[in-house]
Structures
1.
Amino acid sequence: MLLGETLRVALSAIKANALRSMLTTLGIIIGVGAVIAMVALGEGAQARVQEQIQQMGTNVLSVRPGQNMFMGRSSGDARLYYDDAEALVADTLAEYTVAPEARSRQQVSYLRWNASDDIIGTWPEFFDIQNMELEHGRVFTPGEVQGRRRVAVLGYEVAEQLGTPASLLIGRTIQIRGVPFEVVGTLKEKGSMGFSRPDDDVFIPVTTALYRVFGGRDYLSTIYIEVGPNMTMDAAFARIDQVIRREHKLTPGEEADFNISNAADLLETFNETNQTFGLLLAGIAAVSLIVGGIGIMNIMLVSVTERTREIGVRKALGATRRNVMLQFLIEALVLCVMGGFLGVAAGVGGAHLFTELWGWTTVVRPDAILIALAFSAAIGLFFGIWPAQRAARLDPIDSLRYE
């Protein structure tokens, strides 16, 4: 029996039981679709984080509060103080740009519109460190920081939340926690950055935030340091550690109550987490494919039983064991490959659906599609061997007598 005729007979057998064939391939469809969609989500998330890290810059260090330690045990969260940021600026042995950040969620209002946004108290250098660009107006000045002036720069979407075009808000007065602020500038769209979204934030002088809006507190959320071109990251790390230890009165051997991190370190940590998550999802999808392969093997065994007399007729007419085995292997392979292609379509469609409905970044990798199709074909061959061998070993005389 020629290969073309064998393929035609196999396709005819699948077409004769189209509904059963479709139900049989569901496991393959779900498994391949899950692989494609999850890989697309993982790659999209990684690409988005890399873009955000590049926007922030890999030469930016972040200092955040750690844990107070007493007798080797944590005694609660530590704090970073405004004096720490000033001490870093006063350090003449280092070359870096410093910007403190004090963050609190507050009510923002203008006329009859209200919004609940994060209020960021900082210095003018913050906008350069974070690569934020102005759309209208200006940022506040060092003199306005020293004078605790009530001026504000709005994130891209805040103007829309307040029901007014951004250009018309320049020079207007908004209320932050009941305190009037003059809007001096608005920013261009930035997008999400990790767990924060600057487009929804309102930026004011840090001194104004600490003493007029946040109730007179003197501690910060984060201190950002952009390292200059003439200083290595390791040298900057060591110098920052030394300055803040001195401010916190920590001895050289004492455990630090603050954390210093680099954007590149955050990216590496995210990539490791993403890879682990991807392996977990791939394992789940592989189980689904194996279950689908078992289902196909089961249906092929049923098909062998149903077509015992047909097999006997073919053998009586001269079909060899190899011809019969090849026919059933092709049927199993076609079922799995067909399920693989449908799964690819479902996975790609699902990835686009995530992007359209929820705005998630997805990246469909061609190699993931090829691997999924190859794996589905391998599943078809592996789980089709036993039914094919069973069909090939049937005795033609006993098969012709089978009812």
Note: The CA atoms of residues 95 and 231 lie 6 Å apart.
2.
Amino acid sequence: MPKKNKILYIINNLLIGGAEKLLLSVIDKLNKDKYDIMVCCLYSNNPLKSEFEKRGVTVKSLGIKNNRDILCIFKLVKLLKQERANIVHTHLFYANIYGRIAAKLVRVPIIISTEHSNAPWRNKQRLKLKIRLLIDRVTAKFCDRIIAISESVKDNLIQWERIDPNKIVVIHNGINIKKYQIMDKNRDGSSSDSVIGCIGRLEPIKGHIFFMKAAARIFEKIRNVRFILIGDGSLRQDLEKLAQDLNISKRVSFLGFRDDIPELLSVIDVFVLPSLWEGFGIVLLEAMAMGKVVVASDVGGISEIVVDKKTGYLCPPMDPNTLADIVVGLLKDPLKIRTMGLVGRERVKKHFTLDKMVEKTEHVYNTLIIEKLVS
């Protein structure tokens, strides 16, 4: 049997977030006959650790104190020397920085980073952010490939990081389509309310404040409607108060973090993502895979998922009036809701499956192995 190549994935932590769950999905599908896999977290707070370990993956935590703990580099260097990984693949900003530097110092043959975001901090002029951008730009030179999760992220890297376009590979996120099957809408008793749903961390960048303002406008026009927010975060209390101020608190449910997303999506009529920016927006794939029509902000990589007026609607960010008008129009046309939802599901099946994503990722690994370890 050919010798396995050892991959060390480095990530900030294993919180219940998009990048972390995506890494778990990829590791689940990788060819274990070809790759020996280990995960290293910078921090100690790792609620998803057990999920990785269930899949036979060793997880090492460095337990650093804060983002400026440069001892992290020396800990990573020690770990890399012990494990002798020939591929280092980093995810998220601080793991990218420290991981690239340590891998370069140890002379790891293949260094890869995945960029999950086209975060707007890159175009800010504050000194602190300029320094952050410079560090990111310099350490990116250590990478053999940078995987961008969307064309939007790639364009951002070229514009602000000045990265050679030939070094960047776009691999869209994907989902396991088998987990998302169209179900009959579950109703509680005789309720015939339409349900508008939103999934995401309750943080400013996700735009929930505009969702709430749109909800109030929708409720003015359609009374038999309910709104559910799935996720949690620092804005929860503020949003609950806003619901009261808008006189819609009895119509809004805050469900917190949940692990039964397909079941929750099954009760939704229209899915809304009001983000101020998104590198990609994997939750849109989940909603579309469930046959749901989606309405989302036209930011970042979202337009690479949603085909406007075919699989859903794109609207300007921070525009609750337009958002509300689109949703009201959909609620008045159930046939359009169903038709667009089915078209959206077919689009996910064709372009955004986990199998396609892992196949493209393994192609990056194999190409670099041939270039740097075989030739």
Note: Residues 177-351 form a domain with the Rossmann fold fold (CATH 3.40.50.2000).
